[in-house]
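User: Please run a holo structure prediction.
Assistant: Happy to. Please share the sequence and the ligand.
User: Here you go; the ligand is guanosine-5'-diphosphate.
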Amino acid sequence: MAKLFEFQGKHWLSLAGLPVPAGQAVDSAVAAGSAARRLYKPAAVKGQVQSGGRSKAGIVRLVNTPAEAEKAAAAILARAVNGLPVRRILVEEKLDIVKEYYCAVVLNSARTARSPMLMFSPDGGVDIESVPENRIWRRNIDPIFGLRPYEAAELCRQAGVPAAETAALAELLVKLAVAYSGYDCQTIEVNPLALTTAGRFYCADCKMDIDNSAVYRQPQFGIKIARDLPGEPTELDKIGWEIEEDDSRGTGFLMSMRQAEKSCGLIGYHPIGGGSAMMGLDALNRVGLKPANYADTSGNPVAAKIYRVAKCVLAQPKIEGYLLGGFMMANQEQWHHAHALVKVLREILPLKPGLPCVLLLCGNREDESLHILREGLKDLMRPDCPGQRIEIYGRDYVTDTEFIGNRLLSLCLEYRRERSAAGKQV
Ligand code: GDP
Ligand code: MN
């Protein structure tokens, strides 16, 4: 899902006819002060990160003057929430809230539904996870006809919304459902949908995720990378997306894990398939190694694609090793991986002599694949050659995370010792 920030989501909601507080997104404390001055009223100063629980983290603050807004913004900009730095601030008019509703449209992928679904609770303002199940109302939305006004009104009645609020609220729910499909969302969450003392509704918060597969037909969002990323894309994320973007021959997924730059024990991580990726993480965790990146070359990609992913994984500057983690009996033809790996390692290892490389490959064409690897790397793997720490394993080790982890660790320690003796740092 391509996630939008709150201020972006509110912009698009507003264009879809939903009421949002007047406000402006800025990127400095001084600009936050000016934005509050332009509002000419008390303001809500809200750090923009793609993470929930911002008020708990203290990056949603209510202020009365521009000077206070500036001070609050400075404090918020110095913060990070769940590892995500705050780069932007939304300064908007403070609402005098009397009641907070929760509403969202999500995808109900249950076999019996396969449709959008409206979720509603009169107990908004807190994480929906902490709202008791019997205080949440759900209603599937007809994918062709959309949410009908009477359905929205009926849901409000069931949830105990006072009659005086129902007409306005139902109208907003319908607009939200229209926005959901018009923008090709995966989810839209408005929490709280706030009722003010003046009796008006506002979308006081907004989380909007666009369906990755539909990003191409929603160019107005300016989403460059149609995949889940926890923050701004890194260089590796951008390259990873380029590999995948125009080439649908199997999966070639690559993204960075944003591990602290200097931490030691980083491994260029190249699992094959999701389940296998978890077992590979198990192998690394067991011995205290860490993945520098996440990757996946499954679904029978061609060797050229695997080659590009593996090359990026291996080219990462801080890694102390490489793990091809085929912890599964893959039903794809594994010789594509073998050919790709031979080419990559022959190119990279002369630049990183002695780098530990543990290659685990099992499944279709396994014997041929292991033969390709062994033959193609034979000269490189001799003692004192750049590939001296390549180890190749097949089906006998397909579930043995302990063995694979320990092999990688002991090679890494050896490599680290050798490097520090030569006065080099990883
Ligand atoms: P979240 O913690 O990331 O969900 O951030 P929200 O934007 O939803 O803000 C959390 C809470 O702060 C809301 O549920 C409100 O209770 C409160 N809040 C946010 N904006 C305003 C505002 O303009 N006026 C008032 N009175 N409260 C606000
Ligand atoms: Mn919220």
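Residues 44, 46, 52-55, 60, 62, 94-95, 97, 100, 125, 191-192, 204-205 surround guanosine-5'-diphosphate (ligand 1) (CB under 6 Å).
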